[in-house]
Write a structure and sequence with these properties.
heterodimer; A: alpha+beta; 2 domains; 3-stranded antiparallel sheet; 6 helices; 12% strand; globular; disordered N terminus; B: 122 residues; mainly alpha; elongated
């Protein structure tokens, strides 16, 4: 979901062909083995061949990941995700079954504080999966997401949705970002307060 | 009848109900974007519950691996698909403004359209 706005600089996007991407090959092979449903030598070898062909035919820019995995942050991130998934579903169910006129929606702009394709993508993915929000537009140049929010009554609901999106980003950062990225992120949060 | 079967049955039924409600939402919601919510939310949880139910029933590691792959692809692709449809709809003007309380994207797009190329590569 790394969509680019038209005001991105041409040189901004990393090159798509930069040698062998081992994480990609291993990941694709693992998926292949999962799909065949058995860890055998033939499955792994044929999976590797398919993975090499896929990465040659559909090259992607490498994901720059300079962060570190924090177990505690990751548990919090996944835990909240599951909770929000249930809440989101309950809300949409309630709204779908409620008789009478449907409530209003909103399209809001959320300026994320981090400046990384990976965190932008993860935040957008998670936001699209959880309560009442859907990403309709993403700009990687400014790390801005535009969300469609379901069921808002007034301006307060809009602000609640905005804060919820920023908290989602915070959880992503706390789970994955390196110390320097986290410090820069915190400085940005302080500056925008 | 073990506890596994009971939990599995509950998951399967709950998943089916959620998928049914998603279908009802698709009919009842007024415009394209709110229908995308019905498409991505209860349906994602519904499918996950059905997969958990099936996994508890089968209890076979190679089958569970395949169910995991299904869940992973669902979680990765549903938001991307919803984003693409929503983005295209918005830019083609297929969004009903009367259902929106606040709209902060239209001014941003208008400001942008002054500065040249609108195509935007994905």
């Amino acid at each position: 979901m790394t969509s680019e706005a038209s005001d991105d600089l041409p040189g901004d996007v990393p090159s798509r062909r930069t040698g062998v991407q081992w994480p990609m090959l291993i990941g694709l092979t693992a998926v292949w083995v999962l799909l065949w449903g058995g860890l055998t030598v033939t499955n792994v070898l044929s999976g590797l061949v398919v993975a090499v062909i896929v990465t040659l035919v559909f090259p992607l820019p490498p994901i720059v990941f300079g962060g570190k995995l924090r177990v505690r942050g990751l548990v919090v991130l996944i835990g909240w995700f599951v909770v929000e998934l249930f809440v989101a579903s309950a809300q949409v169910v309630a709204q779908a079954l409620r008789p009478g006129k449907q409530p209003l929606n909103a399209v809001i702009e959320v300026d994320l504080r981090s400046h990384s394709d990976l965190y932008l993508t993860l935040t957008a993915e998670l936001l699209s999966l959880v309560p009442g929000s859907l990403v309709v537009e993403a700009r990687r140049s400014t790390s801005t997401l535009f969300l469609h929010v379901l069921g808002v009554r007034d301006a307060d609901d809009v602000e609640v949705a905005r804060r919820r999106a920023l908290r989602q980003e915070e959880r992503v950062m706390l789970a994955l970002a390196s110390d320097e990225e986290l410090a820069a992120y915190r400085a940005d949060v302080e500056a925008s307060r | 009848m073990t506890w596994f079967d009971v939990v599995s049955a509950v998951c399967l039924l709950a998943g089916c109900v959620l998928s049914l409600v998603a279908a009802i939402g698709l009919i009842r919601f007024p415009d394209l974007l709110s229908r995308m919510h019905a498409g991505t939310k209860p349906q994602v949880l519904g499918l996950l519950l059905i997969l958990v139910g099936v996994g508890l029933r089968l209890r076979d590691w190679s089958e569970v691996g395949m169910l995991l792959a299904v869940a992973m692809f669902q979680l990765m692709t549903a938001p991307v698909a919803a984003h693409m449809v929503g983005r295209a709809a918005y830019r083609r003007g297929a969004v009903r403004r009367d259902t929106l309380l606040v709209d902060e994207l239209t001014p941003a797009l208008e400001a942008e359209s002054g500065s040249g190329d609108q195509s935007g590569r994905e």
